[in-house]
Amino acid sequence: MTQSHFDALIVGAGFSGIYQLHKLLSQGFSVKGIDAAGDVGGTWYWNRYPGAMSDTESYLYRYSWDKEDLVKYHWKDHYVKQTEVLAYLNHIVERYDLRKHMQFSTELEHAQYDEVRNVWVVECSNGQIYTTRYLITALGLLSKTNYPRIAGIETFLGEMYHTGKWPGTHDFANKRVGIIGNGSTGVQVMTAIAKQVKHLTSFQRTPQYSVPSGDGPVSKEYRDSINARWDEIWGQVRDSNVAFGFEESKIPTMSVSAEERERIFEEAWQKGNGFRFMFWTFNDVTTDEAANEEACKFIRKKIGETVKDPEKARKLQPDDFYARRPLCDAGYYEQFNRDNVDIVSLRETPIEAITETGITLSNGTKYDLDVLIFATGFDAVDGNYTRLAIKGRDGVSLRDHWAENGGPTTYLGSFVPGFPNLFMLTGPNSPFTNLPPTIETQVEFISDLIFRAEVSPKGSTASARVNGEATNGATKPSPPGPVIEALPESEQKWTQECKDLCENSLFKKTSSWIFGANIPGKTQTVMFYFGGLAAYRKVLKEVVDGGFVGFRDF
């Protein structure tokens, strides 16, 4: 076994890990990035399922900090597909010569904080051991795959896939395919493969509200208009709530006539994008039940108009709140007009068992299948942390710390008391927003925090800079170095603020992965900050301006 020491070790090579690596390298630190995958990409390395795409418009699903690259790097459609996201991340890695600082097929298995030496000792799957002053985890929100607990799942003799761990190639021609799950990935997969397969059966537990994506080719005029407004665009994104590139509505649903509501909903439907439909139309769709029902009625009507078979349409129409992660699609409902596409309501007839040849329902109906796809999502947000042995002070594991707190808790979505110099990117109770702008915000804050600790006199904030650039020719102190640790009361206060923000939200009244409801036995609790990106950035600025309040004095 070999052992190496770095100022910072970054676990994960997706959007978060790549930028954090670049940022700390630019500040003069020795940094290593590792990833369990075989190459760059993070979530986008694994999520290679048919139809996989971002539901953020292409011009925003990228980094903002290289304006030259923003102007020159081309995107052809309004939404980037999986292969294009992967190509973009590889492009950034090559542009900044980051690959030499990365090691792949290297999974963190155990991390222990050494209080005497003030280092993290990290053991990896390949037997390698690293010591690092700062351990930064960029594990992703949606990474730990979730398989449902269905009797006989291990007996199926056909092809079986999970959308989160898709093979390099597949061929579904002339095959009978069953898919369990119809969230974002399920909707995308079904839309993509319906025309390829012999027969497709959707085994649906909960009908979803989905709106058109509005995807299509980007014209030169459109791209030129974006290139002329980059500063304005990113300024608006950082000063918005969900950071999806549109102005959120300030108008209550019931403040306009029924005709005007219909017009606004129709305009949003035609423009496309689930977040736009939820937040651009009216300002109370996610907080007021009557307002929410107006949006629900509109989408249900669209489903009824689109799906010709009344029985299929009935099964596809949701009856709960429109308060899960908003979905959009490239023709999902239209696929059910195909003769080779059917839907089974698992509410009405649950799955009794998976057999060698397919699925048997509770009423005895059997479905013979050649392929079974699980679009059943992830143990989101904290799942990738609780499966790992990460131990802080006194050998206390992160899993046990969170168990004592009744669920995953942090300060600012990144810091946990008792785990010094451990920083999480998009950790529990990070903002519920478009991810790239939030990732940039957290990377820059963490980099500023490290910079302040490394180059400023203890207790001083004079040298700290919002952009994280070194000043005054300061040098790093001798080992053991600074100890950056959130205070317990800071974690408690932030957790309570996150709970308070969603107290009146309809999201809380809807069973979804956002609160951990998709995992049997998992404690359902708030796992996001619902205050919006602008408010989150304001909080971080107040933390900096106050001398990094909420942390032990370092």
Automatic annotation (TrEMBL):
Keywords: FAD, Flavoprotein, NADP, Oxidoreductase. Gene3D superfamilies: FAD/NAD(P)-binding domain (3.50.50.60). Residues 461-481 are annotated as: Disordered. It comes from the Eukaryota. The keyword NADP applies. It holds the Pfam family Pyr_redox_3. Residues 461-475 have a biased composition (Polar residues). One of its GO terms (molecular function) is oxidoreductase activity. This is Cyclohexanone monooxygenase. It comes from Exophiala bonariae.
